[in-house]
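Model: You mentioned two targets. I'll fold them one after the other.
Researcher: Yes, keep them separate.
Model: Target one:
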Amino acid sequence: MKSIYKITFVAIAAVSLQSCIATKDYQKPQVWDNASFNTTDVLKDSAVQSVMPWRQVFTDSFLQQHIQTALDNNLDIRSAIENINQAQSYLAQGRAGYLPTFNVGVNYTHSVNSINTQFGRILGQRQRLDQFDITGSLGWEADIWGKITSKKAAAEATYLQTVAAHQAVKTQLVAMVASGYYNLLALDAQKQVALKTIENRSKSLETNKALKDAGRVTEVAVKQTEAQMLNAQALLLDIENNIKVQENSLSILQGMFPHTIERSSFDTMQLNINTEEGISIETLNNRPDVLAAELGFRNAFELTNVAKASFYPTLKLTASGGLQSVDFEKLFDPTSFFASIVAGIAQPILNGRQIKTQYEISLSNQEKAFVNYKQTVLNASKEISDALYAIDTNEKKLVLKQKEAEAYTTAVNYSQELLNNGLASYLEVLTATESELNAQLNIITTQYNLWNANIQLYKATGGGVE
């Protein structure tokens, strides 16, 4: 009975000693000092930090369907989900660290002694012995220095990191599908421009043939017009090829074999993204990749606590008991019961420098995780700054390109009229028509670049996560 009292006293003392925790409490690292997007003309400190759900940003019904299909079927998403499942299992294991271990074993032992041993010579003969036992063992380690608590916290950080990584994949996927879809619409618009150009140049070719017959132009003008039409036909082939390539890319993002992508038209598309209120530096907190990097640092921090706690003594309580008998018939007899309780404290002294090495490595990993977190924040701020400047640049550029196209269209009309009246050379018409085509294609490209810049800003501010 006294031994039981002693063991109970040791257990109570172990629980009391947990106030002597050697580990440190986690604090979020500060990497926001002097942070900015280098966009003082756009940034407003009063900006709202909420991010709209992707369905409210991308209102096109076809695009919504494609995004949802990608979120359901994309292979990267499915792989990220499996990472979450694995981390969840480790988390459950970490939470069970406070619980004791319990094992049960059933054993049968048959032994025959040697006659040539000291004991065998005393007996003078071989002795055969059978033994049966059912043994249960219970073990528990007191979390005196916070080692088990830190392991649990590290497992929680890893789990949350995989969740954040999954959200980061979703954010990237939404942006990639939206960007690809808008690019497909832009290619459709460029295809229509190419078809219209081929039609117009075909008419111009017939006109120049008539002018040649009338002696107004030479065969050179006819061939130049024909070359322009052939060039437009080749351009059409390139655009059609790019359309198929883009459709295939979107199919793969959806986790499907290449197929035709249903879509709306270029002229009807809009984006419900408002940047007039500005973007605050705190918007970076919305980004799942920033959160994942911070949780990676927390995991490394907690593992450093675990390594540090390994320098201190461990207190373990071990109990075993069961039934043991040399006669199977008496195995379940009350007299076959046995039990033992052991309480022990172990302090590492010499272990080949393993604990110190592990601690030094954990400190290095913690520093690497901090550097990765800071680099992630820097990259995130750059992406937002780049997107803001791209939006501003392409908005201004689109106005200029539209005016440029209008000017070239007027120039084509004037030069063609002058040519018909013998007041201009065909070289002027040729130059004007080629410039008009490029200007029309550039308008479409600039409009797509503006849409894509808004998509990238939405992604850079953590959009796409629901």
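Model: Target two:
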Amino acid sequence: MRVPIASRLIRDAARRTIHQFGARLDRYKLMRRSVIRGELLRDSAIEEALEQHCRTHDISQLEARVRVEQYVEEIVPFFNVLSYYRVGYNLARALLRLLYRVSSEYQDRQALNAIPRGDVVIYLMNHRSNADYVVVAFVLARAVSISYAVGEWARVWPLEYVFKSFGAYFVRRRYREPLYHTVLERYVQLITRNGVTQGIFLEGRLSRDGGLGPSKLGLLDYIARTLRDPMFDRDVWLVPTALNYDRVLEDRSLIQELLEDGARPPRWRQLAGVTRFLTLNLARLLAGNLRRYGRVAVNFGTPLSLRRWVADHPDILDLPRRERLPRLEGLAREVMDRIAGIMPVTPVPLVAAALLSFGRDLVRQDDLLERLDEYRDHLMATAAKLVHADEGVLGLLERAKKSLDLRRLVVAEGEAFLILPRQRPLLEYYANSVAHLLPSPRPSGGHPMLDPDTSLPRLRGAR
């Protein structure tokens, strides 16, 4: 009797949790893992790929089937309501309150609310930090639970178990085997057909220079080809989602490979750095001296109908992959352009861009405020998403100075700011996140003392 009673108590707790959060829960997430596994193992496309794999590699069907089962085991998650909402949500809230002030904004909430309840929603995001997973899930927790596509970096204990219990599925980013990609494609199409809300980082990796990178089309192609199924009559809505930070925890590690003298540190060193930040801030919290790392902001753009886009590009999904992907690049560019247009402009990136716009290592405060005022007017005129827009340029500068002083990126010298040469690439990293929204700097007027100093350290060409 103990097992049924325990199961009933867990189900009741899960129902209370869903009711408390008022979130939309995709029913297919609650499907038994064995059922999903069985659907994939009986899938005709996977069977065909399995036979092709046997012929190509001259192995038995048994060996190939074992490999398929390993891929299915690796990819398919086991969503747990209590894990997502009781553990994940509360942990996310604690961590984010420890590190940041979080804000979110909707460019077109009415369009989002108008999406039919039976349709499928995919959040397509830029990728600044590994904290992105936590930030977006936390912001949307009272609306929907997201199933993320997660890279191999998280396939270590206990992260693998945690992510799978949150409904995330794992993707091997650089693994080219056709059999694996067939299994992954059929899984993504299976959950899409069944209405699972997903979160995908369109760039496929963290930005190294702070700006938006080129799109990776694999997952987007899998989702788009779901529309070829004659039994699937729903629409798929792509929601552009832009994230920006006053402080990216992994920033120094990310820019390292773009410096003249460095290669990117290993993943364990990045995680060690993040752990150090968390421990330091926890100690400050306990000592009553908590200093957050500024603002993290999320903006959600106007959703794009995938079915409508495909209708405007007839027969694209029936083309061979080599011909199809270059055309699908147009869809990815449209989404990335929307993400670029709603990129949150937080104080640190804005001030970093203003400081660097002079091309010198010493910037007078009056000149900086004038440049910030110019930038603010431009952002307001172009309806850009400026965080703390109501505070004026002095308020924006004061907020940015707290982070810049904490990081020792800029030193106050009387009525001027000195940019430390070794810190310049890090300022460039933050400025790049909003550079596309800002006007070009005015020319110096011809005086050689005002010309940009090209000898200062810079990030190498990104990506």
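Researcher: Noted. Anything on target two?
Model: DSSP finds 18 helices and eleven strands in the chain.
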